[in-house]
């Protein structure tokens, strides 16, 4: 009778996550590794769809007390999670459970995004940034080593590749292209995207990207679409498939795309830093991905399990393994150093590009990141307005003016809801 009793004593918690494919396989492997390292706790990972679907499922479950202990929430959900009172601050949890976590070891540009009043609210988990993937065979055939550092020179390269008949698709736009090509474009070039330090300094922030060179960037992308340089989609193929098949020469996408590119691309490929405008000292790119939040309303033993799992995830060995498996950046300096000491970046140099891009400059108010309330609602508005540009219904300036006006209404709604919180 001893064995069943022991099994019953094990505390089980759920972690709801949003990644699929090869990254989900790595998540399940990580969970299995944790479950075998000790006998007290068991984590069960459940995928609830994409980020938006997982977040919506969590909200619905929380309202009826059926929520998981841990939720993976994208950085766009940061303010919603912060002001919801539904989460236990991760530093508070770890301290209460007796863990001496060295928060200063977390890589600053990543960790700072999740820090409030000097303390982390969530554990950075699958952190990423956009890098420029390229077909090295196409660039070599056109006489280039790699994509140029400035946007004007990069444009010349893409037109040369097309004009020489090397490729009919110079670039494919990812479904989330504004993340790297508009938001990331702004942080790299140190342009303000919103007031109040892009929302870091208060809920009174307003979008202002319609007053910066983001307008010219949208005009540039529109020109590339009209001239056949950019392919939006085609023949049922995703952006990843269009690049990995060798159809398109470049692709601005997350460093986490390594898992797919390494497995699927059948040509000489590489990646490099995102371009910047001429005459501009490039700053840091913006982070993406998600963090692990611990939710309120759980028993003490469940919090003990959550803390043990978070401690496991944050270990240098786990972080190094996770980064190597997926392409996401390691979130601690110790993990970064471990990977470097093991020669990982010498063997896989493109895996270090995201880290170099995230850490190459002291963060400014414009390059630290972005915190905007109800960001997912604004995102849908922005995509709708940009579609009007691609289909010749609006100019870039008119579309961005409209998205800013509509976006600022969304910000005011969020501010009014959480005023005084």
TrEMBL record:
Name the family.
Belongs to the bacterial solute-binding protein 1 family.
Q: Which UniProt keywords apply?
A: Periplasm, Signal, Transport
Q: What is this protein called?
A: sn-glycerol-3-phosphate-binding periplasmic protein UgpB
Q: What is its main location?
A: periplasm
Key word Membrane present in the record? no
Q: Which Pfam families match?
A: SBP_bac_8
Q: How does it assemble?
A: The complex is composed of two ATP-binding proteins (UgpC), two transmembrane proteins (UgpA and UgpE) and a solute-binding protein (UgpB).
Q: Where in the cell is it found?
A: Periplasm
**Gene3D superfamilies xref list:** Periplasmic binding protein-like II (3.40.190.10)
The free-text function statement in the UniProt record for this protein reads: Part of the ABC transporter complex UgpBAEC involved in sn-glycerol-3-phosphate (G3P) import. Binds G3P.
